[in-house]
Specification:
Serine Threonine Protein Phosphatase 5, Tetratricopeptide repeat; 119 residues; mainly alpha; 6 helices
Length: 119
């Protein structure tokens, strides 16, 4: 993703949740885009991780059985270094959709970086 693509996607998702505030998938994707804003320093606005956390919580509240919502929540908690809560959200995301390879791989990498190495 380029900074220009990031800005376009972020603006579109912000418009989507403004128009449909109960749309859990849009909130989850917006949280992931905010996390990219933080991790890649794309088009940074104030309070990036708080915005990402708020969006992920909105997603999880709107759709408690959404793997996307819990993936987004796990990612932002990782970046906030809230590792105990990250582990819970990551486990929930993979339990809800264990066949989503990119999610499982991404969260697995984050678990490794968090120091969770299997014996």
């Amino acid at each position: 993703m380029t900074p220009e693509e990031h800005a376009t996607v972020r603006d579109g998702l912000e418009f989507a949740v403004e128009r449909a505030p109960g749309y859990a998938d849009a909130w989850g994707m917006l949280s992931l885009v905010y996390a990219e804003e933080y991790s890649n320093q794309f088009n940074v606005r104030p309070d990036t991780l708080q915005r990402a956390l708020d969006a992920a919580r909105r997603a999880a509240d709107a759709a408690p059985s959404s793997a996307l919502a819990y993936n987004a929540l796990a990612r932002v908690l990782f970046f906030r270094k809230e590792l105990a809560a990250f582990r819970v959200a990551a486990a929930r995301a993979t339990l809800l959709n264990p066949l989503n390879g990119p999610t499982v791989a991404g969260l697995g990498t984050m678990l490794a970086y968090a120091g969770d190495w299997a014996d």
